[in-house]
């Protein structure tokens, strides 16, 4: 450093100056500081200089304090000389001013104590003072001058809230472009302590805002209007109050405080009036809407489909009344009674009651009646008779009553015919009004006609029975040539109900007959004459009764022959015995008994005979001469009849069974029994179990179902063995008893030496055993399961519902019943972590002592069985989040961009650092659970970043997404004046109803451009009009959308959407009525009389009229009358042409030109005729309009 230079450092700035050797002693000078707080450092002989300025809020950033920009108080300013010595200090007052006065001449600088800058303001602009270190540049006081220009400009570090109150039509909790705002809704903003800090009222679009909001926590409350109700919101609840939210420095909370409402006058009632016969709607029916007091509110008529609708209804109770038209009656209804009044309908203001219907039928009082009968006049009942319309449509089917009468009532006027059946067994006999096919002639009825003359008479067809009663000598049930009929037998014919129809007696040939039988079901009983019995055959049973017989018309039945046999008096068999067994025992043989023998059986005489002897009631042996035996299995045994004292049945070694029927000499069955021949000593081959497992409960009993195979096995005895008799016992017959819970098996084994074994799995449960252990009495009221090998974890600050450090365990059986842990024990692998408390007989409490760690816990019941074994872990208490720091408070992105939100939870040892990320509008940006975001479409929204540990700390990220391909501008092009005009959202596009574009079309041509100025084709765009009678959209040209007007004056809201439904522009399109009358408009034309006009293809003098299409409509016919000026006589009248409305149309007359137009003395009158009215356009000397070889110059 040069020894002649002195460098002083103040704060972080450098001050440089020159020290003059020999002048080291400072010269004392007088100074005065002036501000809100003054500190006088030196006072001596006063100087005249000063330095002053103002610290202020520089809201517009121009470094100049403007009107309305407030001063900033409390900033400490120091004055130093060029040696760095402190001269004086001042603190800005409420007006932000500071002043150092009475300064001697010299060089100075200012230093602002940056620690005194306001915390709720940010340094925005500086003048003369370095904002980094607070030091000013040097300035000089000379000759008592006043110095200024050293100040800071500040900007309040405040936030803002901008949101909407709107009608959430689709209830998706976000404001869509087509959803209108709700105006005049009052919203109040409150700070965290509940003090109201601001009020706002929603504007016409529903928008409201709070500006100048200091950083901090707030809540808002909206006064929901009486004719609206809450629909949706992220922050607002149904009472119109939000939860707490945070507004940060310079943060604008956009759309997060949107409040979706729905109207309470948007209910509707709809229904339909139908024709009950056809199902079609009935049009023109009056339907009335009433309130519950009966006051008529509105009347509508049903449309062509019978439907009606009442809309825009307020909340309340209503009913509708269908005024039933003349000629109709009530048929049925859904929600309607027979008087046409509906049930009461409760409307909420936003619901639709749409399931009401009433069915009406035309009044019908006509009747068609008749009768079905026999020639005797007896009615034919139970026959279905049908009525048809003349076109063959079935109307109704009825059954004839007991008199054969039928009747169709309540018929509307029309033509009908009746169809009656001709049932089997009947033929047409005669009729009145019927043909022989059962169809009537056409019958016409008026509304009250009564036609009852129809008659259809039918004759019955009949059948007969002719058969024989005969002597069945060979007892085979069939009459042979040698077997004669038996006279004197009685035959009786019965109806199916058992009534006697007819009785007859067989003739000498045994013939009986029943003739003229009405077709039906019958049966016959034959009573034999004395000395005969009935032998059962295919027609009759042994009781002489036949089966049911269906007799059909014109049928002759001849197969009901009855078989009789002579009565006999044989010795009556009372009992039978199986005799001559080797064991010396005689065994009784009863009817249906079974005799079982082995195939090596021999009687006491060593014959393979089964000997059966028969006895009368006195015990005497019955002679078996003439006895016969028949067998179901004839090959198994052979009968021997040679011994008149018994019947012997000889078997072979063949096994099987046969049914044996023994008859006496008269064919009477005396015994029926079964002989079974089995193989000798048959071994078991298998055991079949009824079930392979037993699942039961303690103390239950049952029996093992087990069967030995084959069924002919000699020894079918089984052995039953339980492998654990403490669980289940089983006796020799397979009866078991469940003893305790557990699993084991039962072995089932044959005992005939075949050693076949089967195993049954056994599971026994104890309904009183513990099946569930629950951790109860938590402060959150949740009951949690405690599972074996599970982990039960608590913080060391855990307290139960009763504020004791107890983990309360309760025990339940399979029925869910609480079991007291009487006699239970608890062991811990680390007893320093917890101890067991048994004070409460209904539970075991694990008592922790705030020590952290883990211990294995084993709980045993009174028998020492382990109930549960699990890990009990005590952790340090959770550390809650205290702050949330964002890496950036805003995101500016383009559509398709991705990124991640940088957010950090404080403190660093917070237990739960998980954050949630919620975008206010997912159509603009989406965020996943990890903070990764994707920009979706252009727009502005916010992302709420929130802690999830219950601390509910929320920070907001402002999001702006732009779309480089989005429509940046819309222009109205192709105007006749060549000017391209912008079309802005919420703007007004106004045209006269005479407007035509460059191409003479009534088209307003709109073209679309992106941010680069490139033309974008409106592919897939849609246009909607609030009043479609004003204009329509034309998409013919792919490069534009044309709004086509039809000269009708008025306004319509126009909304243009792209292919994705986004609103591109929404504006008002106004068509104004032309102020000119038609009389004035038709005068807007140029009239020229020209000789030899170039490029027109005409010669001589011609008349030309050039209408201005902006004024002159199509259909105006122009004519020219020429008069002699002196005499007033008309001598020429020509038609020039008729307008077609096109731009620059030329009306040119080439016929009957008037050559004298070029001469003086002629007056012309030009007329325009429009819609039958003739208007004078002009009149004057023809020479005023005459020229030669000129061309026309257009003026429009």
Automatic annotation (TrEMBL):
Q: What is this protein called?
A: BIG2 domain-containing protein
User: Gene3D superfamilies in the record, alphabetically?
Assistant: 2.60.40.1080, Immunoglobulins
Zinc-finger: is it a keyword of this entry? no
Q: Which UniProt keywords apply?
A: Secreted, Signal
Concerning SMART domains, the annotation shows: BID_2 (SM00635)
Q: Where in the cell is it found?
A: Secreted
**Which residue stretches, if any, does this entry annotate as coiled coil?**
none
Keyword set includes DNA-binding:
no
Q: Which domain of life is it from?
A: Bacteria
Supply one GO CC term from the record: extracellular region
User: From which organism does this entry originate?
Assistant: Listeria booriae
The chain positions of domain BIG2 read 683-760, 880-957
């Amino acid at each position: 450093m040069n020894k002649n230079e002195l460098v002083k450092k103040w704060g972080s700035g450098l001050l440089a100056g020159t020290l003059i050797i020999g002048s080291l002693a400072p010269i004392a000078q007088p100074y005065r500081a002036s501000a809100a707080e003054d500190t006088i450092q030196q006072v001596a002989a006063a100087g005249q200089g000063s330095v002053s300025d103002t610290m202020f809020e520089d809201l517009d950033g121009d470094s100049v304090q403007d009107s309305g920009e407030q001063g900033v108080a409390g900033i400490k300013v120091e004055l130093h000389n060029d040696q760095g010595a402190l001269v004086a200090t001042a603190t800005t007052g409420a007006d932000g001013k500071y002043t150092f006065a009475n300064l001697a001449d010299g060089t100075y600088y200012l230093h602002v104590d940056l620690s005194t800058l306001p915390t709720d303001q940010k340094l925005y602009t500086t003048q003369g003072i370095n904002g980094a270190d607070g030091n000013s540049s040097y300035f000089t006081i000379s000759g008592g001058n006043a110095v200024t220009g050293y100040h800071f400009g500040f900007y309040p570090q405040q936030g803002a809230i901008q949101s909407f109150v709107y009608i959430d039509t689709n209830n998706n909790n976000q404001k869509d472009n087509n959803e209108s705002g709700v105006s005049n809704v009052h919203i109040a903003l409150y700070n965290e302590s509940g003090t109201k800090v601001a009020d706002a009222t929603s504007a016409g679009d529903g928008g409201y805002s709070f500006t100048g909001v200091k950083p901090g926590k707030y809540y808002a409350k909206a006064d929901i209007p009486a004719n609206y109700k809450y629909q949706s919101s992220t922050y607002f609840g149904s009472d119109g109050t939000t939860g707490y939210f945070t507004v940060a420095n310079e943060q604008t909370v956009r759309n997060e405080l949107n409040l979706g409402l729905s109207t309470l006058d948007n209910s509707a009632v709809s229904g339909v009036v139908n024709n009950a016969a056809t199902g079609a709607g009935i049009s023109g029916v009056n339907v009335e809407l009433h309130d519950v007091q009966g006051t008529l509110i509105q009347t509508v008529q049903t449309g062509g489909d019978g439907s009606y609708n009442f809309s825009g209804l307020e909340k309340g109770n209503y009913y509708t009344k269908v005024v039933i038209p003349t000629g109709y009656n009530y048929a049925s209804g859904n929600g309607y009674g027979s008087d046409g009044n509906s049930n009461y309908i409760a409307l909420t203001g936003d619901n639709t009651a749409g399931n009401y219907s009433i069915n009406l039928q035309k009044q019908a009082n006509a009747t068609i009646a008749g009768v079905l009968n026999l020639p005797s006049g007896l009615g034919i009942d139970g026959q279905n008779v049908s009525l048809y319309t003349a076109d063959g449509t079935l109307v109704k089917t009825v059954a004839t009553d007991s008199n054969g009468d039928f009747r169709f009532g309540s018929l509307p006027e029309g033509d009908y015919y009746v169809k009656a059946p001709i049932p089997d067994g009947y033929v047409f006999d005669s009729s009145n009004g019927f043909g022989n096919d059962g169809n009537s002639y056409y019958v016409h009825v008026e509304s009250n006609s009564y036609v009852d003359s129809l008659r259809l008479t039918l004759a019955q067809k009949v059948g007969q029975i002719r058969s024989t009663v005969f002597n069945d000598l060979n007892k085979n049930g069939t009459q042979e040539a040698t077997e004669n009929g038996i006279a004197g037998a009685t035959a009786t014919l019965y109806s199916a109900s058992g009534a006697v129809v007819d009785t007859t007696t067989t003739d000498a040939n045994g013939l009986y007959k029943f003739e003229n039988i009405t077709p039906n079901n019958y049966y016959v009983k034959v009573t034999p004459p004395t000395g005969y019995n009935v032998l059962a055959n295919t027609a009759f049973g042994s009781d002489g009764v036949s089966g049911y017989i269906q007799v059909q018309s014109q049928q002759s039945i001849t197969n009901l022959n009855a078989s009789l046999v002579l009565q006999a008096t044989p010795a009556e068999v009372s009992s039978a015995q199986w005799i001559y067994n080797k064991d010396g025992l005689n065994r009784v043989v009863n009817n249906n008994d079974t005799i079982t023998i082995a195939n090596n059986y021999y009687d006491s005489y060593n014959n393979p005979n089964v000997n059966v002897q028969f006895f009368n009631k006195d015990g005497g042996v019955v002679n078996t001469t003439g006895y016969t035996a028949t067998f179901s299995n004839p090959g198994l045994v052979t009968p021997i009849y040679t011994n008149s004292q018994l019947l012997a049945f000889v078997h072979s070694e063949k096994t099987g069974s046969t049914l044996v029927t023994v008859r006496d000499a008269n064919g009477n069955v005396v015994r029926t029994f079964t002989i079974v021949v089995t193989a000798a000593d048959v071994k078991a081959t298998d055991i079949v179990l009824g079930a392979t497992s037993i699942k039961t409960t303690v103390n239950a009993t049952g029996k093992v179902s087990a069967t030995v195979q084959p069924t002919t096995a000699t020894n079918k005895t089984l052995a039953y063995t339980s492998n654990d008799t403490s669980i289940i016992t089983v006796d020799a017959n397979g009866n078991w008893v469940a003893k305790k819970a557990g699993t084991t098996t039962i072995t089932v084994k044959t005992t005939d030496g075949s050693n076949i074994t089967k195993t049954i799995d056994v599971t026994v449960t104890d309904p009183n055993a513990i099946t569930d252990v629950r951790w109860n009495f938590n402060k959150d009221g949740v009951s949690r399961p405690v599972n074996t090998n599970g982990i039960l974890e608590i913080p060391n600050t855990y307290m139960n519902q009763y504020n004791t450090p107890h983990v309360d365990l309760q025990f339940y059986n399979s029925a869910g019943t609480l079991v007291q842990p009487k006699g239970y024990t608890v062991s811990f692998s680390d007893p320093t972590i917890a101890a067991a408390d048994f004070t409460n007989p209904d539970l075991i409490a694990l008592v922790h002592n705030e020590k952290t760690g883990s211990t294995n816990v084993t709980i045993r019941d009174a028998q020492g069985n382990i109930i549960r074994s699990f890990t009990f872990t005590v952790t340090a208490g959770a550390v809650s989040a205290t702050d949330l720091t964002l890496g950036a408070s805003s995101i500016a992105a383009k559509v398709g961009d991705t990124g991640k939100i940088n957010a950090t939870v404080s403190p660093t040892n917070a237990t739960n650092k998980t954050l949630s990320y919620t975008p206010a509008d997912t159509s603009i940006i989406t965020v996943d659970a990890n903070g990764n975001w994707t920009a979706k479409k252009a727009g502005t929204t916010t992302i709420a970043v929130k802690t999830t540990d219950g601390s509910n700390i929320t920070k907001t990220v402002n999001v702006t997404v732009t779309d480089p391909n989005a429509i940046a501008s819309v222009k109205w092009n192709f105007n006749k004046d060549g000017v391209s005009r912008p079309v802005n959202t919420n703007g007004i596009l106004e045209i006269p109803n005479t407007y035509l574009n460059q191409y003479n079309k009534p088209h307003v041509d709109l073209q679309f451009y992106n941010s680069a100025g490139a033309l974008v084709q409106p592919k897939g765009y849609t246009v909607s009009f609030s009043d479609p009678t004003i204009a329509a959209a034309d998409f013919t040209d792919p490069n534009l959308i044309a709004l086509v007007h039809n000269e009708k004056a008025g306004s319509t809201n126009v909304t243009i959407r792209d292919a994705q439904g986004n609103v591109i522009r929404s504006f008002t399109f106004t068509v104004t009525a032309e102020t000119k009358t038609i009389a004035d408009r038709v005068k807007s034309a140029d009239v020229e009389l020209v000789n030899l006009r170039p490029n027109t293809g005409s010669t001589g003098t011609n008349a030309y009229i050039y209408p201005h299409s902006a004024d002159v409509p199509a259909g105006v016919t122009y004519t020219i009358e020429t008069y002699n000026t002196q005499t007033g006589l008309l001598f020429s009248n020509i038609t020039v042409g008729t307008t077609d409305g096109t731009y620059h149309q030329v009306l040119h007359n080439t016929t009957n030109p008037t050559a004298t137009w070029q001469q003086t003395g002629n007056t012309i009158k030009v007329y325009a005729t429009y819609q039958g009215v003739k208007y004078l356009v002009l009149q004057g000397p023809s020479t005023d309009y005459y020229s030669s070889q000129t061309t026309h110059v257009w003026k429009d």
